[in-house]
Amino acid sequence: MRYSYIIPRKKSIFTAEIRLVITFFSMTIFMLVGTYSFLLYKDTMFIKDKRLIENQKIVFQKNTKEMEAQILLIEKQNSLSQKIFTKNSVLKDSIKNLFDLVPQRITLSEAKLLENGLILYGITPNKDVYNFMLHAPLRSIFHKTYSSFYPAKGGWLRFVSTNYMDDETDEILDENKGEKHD
Amino acid sequence: MLKKLLYNQIYINIIASNKKTIIYVEEVGINGSSQNTEEVFETSQKQKINAFLLQNIKKSPIYYISLLDNSLAQGATPTCSSKDIAQFCDMGVVNHICYTKQWGYYTSKLDILELKNYYKVTGLDFIFSPFLLLVNFFKDKIAGELSLYVLIGIDSITLSIFKDSELFFAEAIDMQNQNEFQDELGIVDEENIEEDLSLDDSGINLDDIGADDEEMDSLDDFDDIEDLDTFDEMDEFAEDENEEISEVVMPDLSDGESSFGEDYHRFSLIQSAINKFYKDDRFSSDFIQQIYIADSIGINSELKKFLEEEMFLNVVIRKIDLPMEVCELAKAERK
Prior knowledge:
The complex is a heterodimer of chains A (182) and B (335). Chain A folds into two domains: 16-101; 104-171, Gyrase A, domain 2, CATH 3.30.1360. Chain A is 63% helix and 17% strand. Chain A is an alpha+beta fold. The mean pLDDT of chain A is 85. A four-stranded antiparallel beta sheet of chain A has the order 1-2-4-3, covered by helices on one side. Chain B has 335 residues and is of the alpha/beta class. Among the domains of chain B are: 2-68, Nucleotidyltransferase, domain 5 (2-Layer Sandwich); 175-322, no CATH class. Helices cover 38% and strands 25% of the residues of chain B. In chain B, the strands form three sheets. Chain B has a five-stranded mixed beta sheet with strand order 3-2-1-4-8, with helices on both faces. In chain B, strands 11-10-9-12-13 form a five-stranded mixed beta sheet, with helices on both faces. In chain B, strands 5-7-6 form a three-stranded antiparallel beta sheet. In chain B, helix 12 (260-279) runs parallel beside helix 13 (301-311). The termini of chain B are close together. The A-B interface holds A 2-6, 8-9, 11-15, 18 and B 2-3, 6-7, 61-64, 66, 69, 95, 97, 107, 112, 116, 123-129, 132, 329, 332-334.
């Protein structure tokens, strides 16, 4: 029941001091939460970046391996090409030398270049010309030389000269064996 | 509920009069324990009063400042019907509260604003009517036969006449404003009382209370009139008196606060109020035999003597602690 002429004022538990304390704690909590959120965000971003970088690293490593493989292949190809070039040069020189070796009296009809040999077909006036003017230099170049003759028109002889070189590795092995024996 | 668990409740109760302002502070703890302090200030020391109030307010945010209305324009109406209230007060300028369907009390809206303005530093939560206080204090009596109930404050008197819980008459009197008595009785020596009293036309036989030497004998005879207490022996009076005898507090005669003059002043005011009741057509008159006095200041036995001897009233005096009663009202209002 109402007795008083006036209505009492509403009483708040939030006094000036409490409001100050609440404001202080609110600000502190807000700052802490803010800092925590910021750090959390940064941490998440860092983890995300880390994952991205790790993925990139993996991709790069993969690419590097691929590139290394490619480099290796290219190097091999390069060395092969150099080897081929060298071989070709050697072959070219060899052919040039070969044709230089062939005397004017002997006519070559065919020449087959093998990997480690040379087969020559031609016509020689006689065996002696062949033996002295062609067979001797061939023997000096190749390790094994086989010659076969059969008669051609006009008293000339057709010849087939088969020349082989031993493998260098075999030679090296042989040399090594020889050194060991020594 | 949370408030009660967190803070003590401070009830600040102000009883203001023209001279003194009593501030009673009750601090109710969280566990229900209470601690009381009371300070009395000169009413003119507004700064000290405000400082004391602020000092207590700071103790807890849950505080209630209650004030006992001392407005001159306050009163009570023996009805709560808006039509009938108009006979007693102008509803446009007063704040009226119905206590029951049978009666209510009011005070001036302007005075409330003035009080709010006076205590604007601390503010007010409750303003209680002294009529309400009086009825609460004598709630065990007002349901009885026609009786006059008087609340004697520092410089105010609040009267009401009840019969069977029905209000017949009510009046609030500010003693300071009764110049015809105050100016004279406040200054005069006891020796001149006869002259002063001769100014009173209220029908009192001044010879009976004359202070001249010649008259002293007759005054002494008045002491014998204490035998009027034999009225108590009369069945119709003795019944209530015996019941209340333990409650009667006879104030210390050496107490300077309530002089003979003041008591006579009070008696005169009560007498004139009763006369007003008898003469006013608005009130259904009946003969008053019983008077209950709530004494907050410690009145002398003279007043009782006057009332008994001059008006043949059966007097019952109860000591009242006004600030504490106001505090109880504030607590009740909060519930």
